[in-house]
Design the sequence.
């Protein structure tokens, strides 16, 4: 599955989100991915709920196209703090 397609799935499902998806183990492993997702929709949500939003956006692909996903979710404010 193309990384930009996964980013689009997430961004289309989670309001005002920005998703970056990479291969967690380099180019040789297609089904172990890492995703960073930033959205104001995460505000006030527990981490588990934030991750569930991303998994829901992937609509079953976690059992078919994606074997593992290292997931980091942030509100825009949290991401600004993380980056600085």
Sequence:
């Amino acid at each position: 599955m193309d990384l930009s397609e996964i980013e689009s799935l997430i961004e289309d499902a989670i309001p005002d989100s920005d998703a970056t998806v990479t291969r967690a183990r380099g180019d040789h492993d297609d089904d172990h991915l890492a995703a960073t997702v930033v959205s104001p929709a995460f505000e006030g949500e527990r981490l588990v709920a934030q991750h569930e939003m991303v998994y829901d956006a992937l609509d079953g692909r976690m059992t078919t196209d994606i074997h593992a996903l290292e997931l980091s979710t942030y509100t825009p404010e949290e991401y600004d703090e993380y980056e600085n």
Summary: Helices lie at 3-13, 47-57, 76-83.
